[in-house]
Amino acid sequence: MVDLVSQLTHRKKGYTLEAPFYTDPEIFEADMDVIFGRHWIFVGVDVDVPEPGDVMVVKVHQTEVAIVRDDDGVIRAFHNVCRHRGARLVHDDKTTVGNLVCRYHSWVYDTTGALIHAEHMGQDFDKSCHGLKPVHCRSLEGLLFICLAENAPADFDEMERQIAPYLAPHNLRDAKIAYEHDLLEHGNWKLTIENNRECYHCGANHPELTVPLFAYGFGFDPKELDPAEREHAENYACMLNDNHRDWESQGLPSKEIDRLDDMVTSFRTERLPLAGAGESHTLNTERACKKLMGNLTNAKAGALHLWTQPNSWHHFMGDHAVVFSVLPIDAEHSILRTKWLVHKDAREGIDYDLQNLIGVWMATNQQDGDLVGYCQQGVRGKGYVPGPYSPHTEMLVEKCTNWYVGRMMAHLAQTRAVA
């Protein structure tokens, strides 16, 4: 049995985790209990269930959650389990219903989760005691989060207070999903997140993604720069400050907020400029969709990024948005779920070309998936020892790892105190 307390206590700051954190089934189950079972998890967008009666099912390890827009337009979440004898209730990833009907014995629930019909249960049976079991569900300006715990972390409100003004101009609730894609990654979920939290690897591995990106926006060692490179870095810093000032004067909050390692519900956001035409994550750096998001009038709105712990990252541009979630399967496999959003009135083939819209991130996701697989193969072997993070380009990976260790330690300390 893995001594999780010892493993966490002796973790060396500034280094990757010991191999069992990426390979051991017991630690994976602890991750599912503590991290994915007790924190806010990003699972989709409001427009996954755009109309009353629309349902989306999300699987978080062994737990399925049905997310439903009720008849009054309120988005709710329930365990996807009939309250009679535990049958799976909704069988499709997405569907539309009048009521939720169990196929086993035809118990019927309305879209608020209330049991409204159950035959042959006797006169003393109280339907009001057998509604669907609710799951905490919150929408952050159109981004959907759930929490499986009985008591969800209360600091979601603080994240919402700080992040909502950044997201509001993009108006995700007035968008539609143009495309979505699931990629099976042969790696532990933490390797996927670690890979995302840095761009140290980007230059050598992402020829499509780096076209619209500025190299100096993702960290560098100033001592390694020659005079020309130092001048370029200084110019980028000035441009970033100028862009932040200009965007904020237009009502687009832009300056960095970094709460990756000092909140339970942790996050980071910043709006960054794009190179070339400066409009979008496309190979020609021009907008992929003619119709802009929300009420934006300027395609050169940069790229607003948002990370939330433990399982998401997102990019919001003037013309479209891309949202990502990591859903663990087992200790060595994960699903990366990506959704591309455009304005709800944008027409495929007229306002946007789908392949142009999704091309950069379809390529980048596969490249990252391959890299995660290489890491998983490496950490399995006897030659693996924790390696050092770069203090100049991987400082945010360190913050994410610190958050993970801190949340696991806090739970174990609480468990020991109760015992």
Task: Give a concise summary.
With 419 residues, the protein is an alpha+beta fold. The protein is built from nine helices and 17 strands.
User: Shape from CA axes?
Assistant: globular
CATH architecture of the largest domain: Alpha-Beta Complex
What's the name of the CATH homologous superfamily of the largest domain? Answer: Naphthalene 1,2-dioxygenase Alpha Subunit, Chain A, domain 1
Order of helices and strands, N to C? HHHEEEEEEEEEEHEHHHEEEEEEHH
Content of β-strand: 15-25%
CATH topology of the largest domain, anyone? Naphthalene 1,2-dioxygenase Alpha Subunit, Chain A, domain 1
Ranges where pLDDT stays below 50 over 5 or more residues in a row are none
Q: What would the average pLDDT be, to the nearest integer?
A: 96
End-to-end C-alpha gap = 19 Å
Our Rg estimate from Cα atoms comes to 23 Å
Pfam families: Rieske (PF00355), Ring_hydroxyl_A (PF00848)
GO molecular function: 2 iron, 2 sulfur cluster binding; iron ion binding; oxidoreductase activity
Protein name: Iron-sulfur cluster-binding protein, rieske family
InterPro entries: Rieske_2Fe-2S, Rieske_2Fe-2S_sf, Ring_hydroxy_dOase_asu_C_dom, Rng_hydr_dOase-A
Question: Can you walk me through this structure?
Answer:
With 419 residues, this protein is α+β, with helices and mostly antiparallel strands. The chain has two domains: 47-152, 3-layer Sandwich (Rieske Iron-sulfur Protein), CATH 2.102.10.10; 164-404, Naphthalene 1,2-dioxygenase Alpha Subunit, Chain A, domain 1, CATH 3.90.380. The protein is 29% helix and 23% strand. It contains nine helices and 17 strands. The strands form four sheets. It has a seven-stranded antiparallel beta sheet, with helices on both faces. Strands 4-3-2-5 form a four-stranded antiparallel beta sheet, with no helix packed on it. Helix 3 (25-38) packs across helix 9 (395-418) and helix 5 crosses helix 8 (354-380).
